[in-house]
Write a structure and sequence with these properties.
By secondary structure, the chain is an alpha+beta fold. It is 47% helix and 21% strand. The protein has 2 domains: 79 residues, no CATH class; 60 residues, Nucleic acid-binding proteins (OB fold (Dihydrolipoamide Acetyltransferase, E2P), Beta Barrel). It has a 5-stranded mixed beta barrel. The radius of gyration is 30 Å and the shape is rod-shaped. 25% of the residues are buried. It is a multi-pass membrane protein.
């Protein structure tokens, strides 16, 4: 009876340590404490089986080292990579523009992103009147190819 209680207490201590480490990870954000929390979970699982303390500590150490060496670098590359800011004209594709001079097969003008652009219709048979809203489908040199906004 006493042995079963000690096993349960040991496992609970490991699980509490895991929760504390995971909670501290929220403040730090480096994934190190999260990897140690994973090791503590494994240590708690081993303790729950009734294994001796040294086996739980060994499981904690091996798991923590493995997570730190293999999972942490992957997570850092995947989640902490800087966002790339696209400043090319292609970033305007999909934007909404307002027609300021009738857009036809060979020309017209739109107000796009605060500046005036030359524009032409995607379909040569369609024209867009002044004041209409259009969507930029592509950028062809210095001309925006537009289509009616849905």
């Amino acid at each position: 009876m006493l042995s079963g209680t000690l096993v349960l207490v040991g496992a609970i201590v490991w699980f509490i340590a895991s929760l504390v480490l995971a909670g501290l990870e929220l403040a730090v954000g480096e994934f190190t404490l999260l990897m140690l929390a994973g090791g503590a979970l494994v240590g708690g699982g081993v303790a729950l089986t009734g294994a001796p303390l040294w086996a739980s500590v060994l499981a904690f150490a091996i798991t923590s080292i493995g997570l730190l060496m293999f999972l942490r670098p992957f997570l850092k590359r995947r989640l902490l990579k800087p966002q790339v800011l696209d400043t090319s004209f292609n970033a305007l594709v999909g934007s909404t523009a307002q027609v300021i001079d009738s857009v036809e097969e060979h020309g017209g003008q739109i107000r796009l992103d605060g500046s005036v652009w030359s524009a032409r219709s995607l379909d040569p048979s369609h024209t867009f009147a002044e004041g209409e809203r259009v969507t930029v489908i592509s950028i062809d040199g210095t001309t925006a190819v537009v289509w009616k906004e849905d």
